[in-house]
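Pasting two entries for a bug report.
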Amino acid sequence: MEKRQRQATLLRIISEKEVETQEELRRCLAEAGITATQATISRDMRELKIRKGIAESGANCYYVGAAAPERHNSIFAQSVIAVDYAGNMVVIRCHAGMAPAACKIVDEKSFGLVVGTIAGDDTIFVLTRSEKHAIQLVEQLKTMYT
């Protein structure tokens, strides 16, 4: 099986249905007549910039990187309850279990203001270089969930 064909099939599957695990993705590929190992699927996913996120249905499933901005905003908006800051620290309060997904979005977008992040179950701490950067970050984040 040619790599391009396998990757095209992988993208088609992810765009057509909510796939939650690599094992489920491997089964879908097998149903399409493509045999692939977990290592091959992982490599393909990395190359294709396939990530995991929360779909509108609430399922934690794979999506294609090109769909990320719209989906990121949706995931962030669904996850975040409040954003505030103190000094150069931004605190993002989330619904239970949603902080890691929201934190991933902050990490990926970075905004050029973030030094680092730490996510718990429902809280994210974001370190910025200055209070001015914290204020700017809070303003940007608020536009993503309000």
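Entry 2 (this is the one that rendered wrong in the viewer):
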Amino acid sequence: MNKIITIAFIAIAALMAASSMLFVVDQRQVGVVYALGEIKEVIAEPGLKFKLPPPFQNVVFLDKRVQTLDSPDTRPIFTAEKKSLIIDWLVKWRITEPRQFIRNNGVDYRNLENRLSPVVQAAFNEEVTKRDVQGVLSKERDKVMNDVRTRLAEDAKSFGIEIVDVRIKRVDFVADITESVYRRMESERKRVANELRSQGAAEGEKIRADADRQREVIIAEAYRDAQKIKGEGDAKASGLYAEAFGKDPQFAQFYRSLEAYRGSFRGKSDVMVVDPSSDFFRAMRGSGNK
């Protein structure tokens, strides 16, 4: 029984010793082996690895994937025209020299971020002060990011890292001038709107004047055509009358007399004082009463 217990104890001790000497390096990590406080070995290849048991050796792991550093504050930066801008940025970085990284920052990434942020901010200050607002906002935005990345490339080596990318997330004016900028933009938009309305009103007047002119031309042409047609009709009617009256002159004289009577006695209250024996009433007297 005691032998069995002894064997079990030895087996457990052997497993504990083996577990303290074996470790696994993930493909996303770098293993750093320490020997009595000094870096003994850096292991970048993933797999099962061996080391001496503590306290002779121990191991720490560093993430070798791309990390992100965001701008920690919103301090204003002055442009070449002395305008204050707030620039929100981010930096993508990864560890390339684990030994250098640990010597300068330890194994806590926050130490690196606290030291790298002022360096990035200073690089942005240098680049933004060379340009005006329009350049930072649009025209030279990409160049600003590329120039900042170039500036950081050399400094990054001392941290044991590589700068993968630099991006500007947002550019804005400081709070005390943002309102005035909005008011200026509003005034500009109102000016453009008023100008467009004036142009529209002028164009409307032009269209109405042209429509009135065309209307007058159309009415004049229609009146001319109507008068022409009327004249042609009157001429044709006169011709028909002349032809008809030429066939029977006596009827023509009688018809003209009736037309004269119709024109003279148009109203019921009309009164005429005329000699009944005058030629005006010849048609009424008949052929027997001359």
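Dev reply: Rendering is fixed now. As a check, the viewer should reflect this: The chain has four domains: 2-63, 67-173, 190-247, 249-285.
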